[in-house]
Amino acid sequence: MLRYLPFLLVLALWIYAFVDCLNTPEEEVRGLPKVVWVIIILLFGEVLVGPVAWLVAGKVRHAPANGSTPSRRHRDHRTRQLAPDDDPEFLDSLKTGGKQDEALLKDWEADLRRREEELRRRERDGDARQ
Questions:
Q1: pLDDT tens for each residue of 30-80
Q2: Exposed/middle/buried for residue 20 (C-beta within 10 Å: 0-12, 13-18, 19+)
Q3: CA 86 to chain centre
Q4: Does residue 53 contact residue 30 with C-beta atoms inside 8 Å?
Q5: Would you give the distance in Å from CA 109 to the centre of its chain?
Q6: Which has the closest alpha carbon to 20: 10, 34, 31?
């Protein structure tokens, strides 16, 4: 089984480069037209020249999304995780969230009472008409 490993790795790289080339938009292809890159990958894939050439020179590589990598201080900085019952921000959010929930519940109860009263009034008016 181990003797097939190099063949499988070459095949995997060949397939990856081919699919990557096909999925790359035309404006992100460097050097040659996309069709030429596909032909190079297919013709020279067995000797790894085509796929390696595509990966090295054929596709525009983008910089990180924010334009730079994080500084060493940010990479090395580890935030200390607190348990929820030790985190003052979390405890404060529970208090304010509870107050908001209570206010919302009172509004719902008042709306429910108003609707029940309206239904009773309609029933009384309907009984009075009959």
A1: 888 999 999 999 998 778 889 999 888 887 776 666 656 656 655 555 566
A2: middle
A3: 30
A4: no
A5: 39
A6: 34
d(CA 59, CA 81): 41
H-assigned helices in 4-87: 5-23, 34-43, 49-53, 72-76
pLDDT of residue 74: 59
**Which residue carries 């020249």 as its tokens?**
49
Does the pTM surpass 0.85? The reply is no
DSSP 29: B
Q: What residues are paired with 59 via a beta bridge?
A: 29
Residue 21: both structure tokens together:
């080339």
Q: Cα separation of 36 and 107, whole Å?
A: 68
